[in-house]
Amino acid sequence: MNNEDHSLRETLADWRVAPQTDAGFRARVWQRIDRAASRESWPVYARRHATGVAFALGLALVAGGWFGRTYAHQQVKRDRDRLAWDYLASIDARYQADQFTRQ
Amino acid sequence: MRNLLISVALVLAAGLAASTIVYRRCCDPDLHQAARTGDAEHWLRREFHLSDAQMAAIENLQIDYDKECSMHCQSIIQANERLAAIRRAAKADPALLAGAQRVLDDREALCRDAIKAHLRRVAALMPPTEGKRYLAMLLPKVDTFRHEGAPNLRLDP
Known about the structure:
The complex is a heterodimer of chains A (103) and B (157).
Chain A: H1 2-14, H2 25-38, H3 42-48, H4 50-91, H5 93-102
Chain B: H1 2-26, H2 29-37, H3 40-47, H4 52-88, H5 94-124, H6 128-143
């Protein structure tokens, strides 16, 4: 047993690895990392980019809410303007005479 | 790339959802429907918080006023037609033209006064604060009437 260990140690001590230089090694490693990253599920991706995703979602919610509110208020104002105009036009003989003349 | 696209889609969907929800909360479907159908009476009742009795009284006033309004309308049409006829004449007499214009202006001034008087009568049937608001909103618009187009009825000051 001791002889075998000794022999193995000697063999390992004499063993020299002389790998050939591989210029594309680093690039291939990164390609594999990228491939692995592209296969990750969205929840994992979202967790990895939690700050960015949360910021974008928050911004979208605020911007969407602001747009919806502004559009609704403009719509209400347009409707009120139009109804006030309809009302005044219905009691304004000058407007009615104008409409008649233009026909 | 796929996850980035999913993220962008989710962000857009969230924005759209927020926009829709807030729009629905802030819009006024009842008012919008009234504007689409031109239901000015509905607007009047809602805008100035009128009761059924007040609205009925205003409608009665409106019926009486309609007769007066028709008379003014006819007289303005006649004055308009006379003015147009004089203008069409090859050699329009300036004095005649000025006279016809004066008649039209006078009739329009009468009409304007009648509208204002009617608005004041309607306002008197409303709760005092609403009546004041009604007059403040509509009286200035009567004066800004222009024949070249519809009067500017924007409610902003």
